[in-house]
Input
Amino acid sequence: MAIASLKDLYFDELSDLYDAETQMIRTLPILAEAAHAPELREALRQHCDESRLHLERLELIFTHWGERRRAKTCAGVAGIVQEADDRLNQEATDDARDAGIIGVAQRIEHYEIAAYGCARAYARRLNRADEARLLQETLDEEGRADRRLTEMAEAHINDDARSEWDMREPEATGRLKYLPLENLERSRDLRDLAIRNVVDAELGRLDGLVADAESGIARYAVVDGGGLFSRRRYLLPVTMIRYDESARVLRVDLDETLASRYPEFDRDEFQAMTERDRRGYEMRLLEFFPRTPVEPGQGGADAAPPEWLMTGVWVTVPPQKAERLSPDARSFANEFVPDREHVVARAAEPPPVPGEDADTPPPRDKIR
Output
C-alpha cells in the first residue's frame, strides 16, 4: 500500500513488528532446545514469553485506532531466522553452538530495538502518549534481553567456545633453523656473553640462535646453562632479552627456578629433525612462548630483531623494517638501507690487505 502520511508509516512499522514478534515466538523455542548452557536456555524461553506480551501490546494499539492489523511479512527477521536455521544445522561443539545462538538471537534483538524505537518516535509525533509508553516498555524489555545475552557471552560462553587452536599463533612454518654463533658474521661481541637476571644471578651464556629459515629473523636465543657433568641448553625468546651496556651482559627478567623449566634444546637432535618434527617442535614453542601482541605500525611476526642482536651480529632486514631502527642499529642492516654516514666512512677507508687483520672472520652465514 502507498504511504501517504506518518500514520500510514506508523501502521506499516507496527505491522512489520507484529510479524517479527510472531517469528520470534516460533524461533526462540527452537534456539532454546538447541542451547547447551542452562542459563541460555532459560533466557531464551523467558524472552519467548515476553514476545507474547509484546504481541498483546501491539494488538492493543491497533484496537486503540479501531483498525485491523495489516498483513505484512517482516523480511528482515525472516532473513535472520534463516541464518539461525543454517547455524543450527552446522556441525559444531556445544559451546561453539551456544555462542552462535547468542549471535543470531542478538541480531533479532537489535533489529527489533531499532524498529520499536522508530514506532515509538512516530507515536509521540502523532500525540499517542499511551501507545508510546507501551512501545517504550517493550523497548526496555528488548534491551534487557540483549544485555543479558551479552553478559552470558562475556562471562563464559565465548571463552568456553575457544579451542586450544584458537589461542595459538598462525600455523608454524616448520622451517626453523639453528645458527651457532661461530657461523655468524660479527658475532665476536656476543660469544660467551653472560645472561643474567635482574638480581644479577647468572642464567647461562649465549650459545647460538634459532631463526626463521624463510625470513631469517632470529626468534630464540640458545642459552648454555652449564653444568658439571652435562651441559643443559635451553631457549629464550630474543624479545625477552636486553643488553646491559654498563655490565656488558645480557639481562632477562627471569627467576633461576623458572629458567630451569624452559624448553631444552639439543643441537644434534634439532639438526636431525624432519620438517614435520620441526613443525611440531615450533608449535610446542608457541604454546610455551605466546608471542606478545605487536603495536600498530611495528610489524607482525617478521618484525626486526632487538637492537642488541642487530649490533652484535651482521643482520640484513628489508627496507621497511630498517627505517624503524635507530641510526646505530641501521648501520648493520647492510644490504638494504645502510646508514649514510656509515657508508661514507667505509668508502673513505683503504681496502684491507688480505691476511692483515687476523681478527676478521671469513664469510659465514647471515641472519636475514
